[in-house]
Amino acid sequence: MKKAFFLDRDGVIIEERNYLADPGQVALCPGAAEAIRKMREAGYLVIAVSNQSGVARGYFTMEQLAAVEQKINALLEAENARIDAWYYCPHHRKGIVPEFSRECDCRKPKPGLLLKAAEEFDIDLPHSFLIGDKLSDIRTAENARCRSAVLVLTGHGAEEKNLPGAEDVQMEKDILAAARRLLSGTE
Ligand SMILES: [Mg+2]
Ligand SMILES: [Zn+2]
User: Fold this and answer.
1) Alpha carbon distance 181, 30 (integer Å)
2) pLDDT tens-digit map of 55-80
3) Percent of the chain beyond pLDDT 90?
């Protein structure tokens, strides 16, 4: 079995932009490429897991989501970093696009995206990590029985760290600091 780092996209890999639809607005978070290189060098798969309810809400299409993904991949490739796979939840209960407007089992904090990736890549969840910028990301890691998770203070993390329930959550300033902390515990 393989070990993985599960990474939230917005506010962790790339700068948070409200309902990002334009590849031209993509900017990597500081340290993201280096963090991903370190994860891969340590033998981990790197899997992005992202709620994108903007699809259900009609703000952007799956094609636009794919164009943003291509842009991120190109920026990472230029720094010798690579994401192994991307998993999205495009759903929302109160969406307007019928195909995607429903309750689902993949919208974080539900563990569906992680469970699907684990099945497709033969991932050992209890030896895998998650990095996110929302408490709901941390809950997702717990719900999927991951080994550990870190909340970063980029993106929504700056506000989320003050919310009820954040008291016992591990925090680091960004994805690179989070990667270093989680990897240092595995030596
Ligand atoms: Mg996020
Ligand atoms: Zn979903």
Assistant:
1) 16
2) 999 999 999 999 999 999 999 999 99
3) 98
Asked if 37 and 76 count as a contact pair (C-beta separation under 8 A), the reply is no
Domain of 39, in residue numbers: 4-154+165-184
Ligand showing the shortest atom-to-Cα distance for residue 101: 2
Among all bound ligands, the one having the nearest atom to the CA of 115 is 2
Using one digit for the tens of pLDDT, what is the confidence trace for 165-185? 999 999 999 999 999 999 998
Percentage helix, strand, coil for the chain under 3-state DSSP, each rounded to 5: 35, 15, 45
- State the CATH number of the domain containing residue 86: 3.40.50.1000
- Compute the distance from residue 22 Cα to the ligand 1 centre, in Å: 17
Give distance in angstroms: CA of 96 to centre of ligand 2: 14
Q: Is 160 a domain residue?
A: no
pLDDT at 187: 54
The structure's pTM equals 0.97
Which residues carry out catalysis?
8, 10
Domain presence at residue 139: yes
Stated as kind and residue range, the H or E segment containing 177 is helix 175-184
C-alpha of residue 51 to centroid of ligand 1, in Å: 8
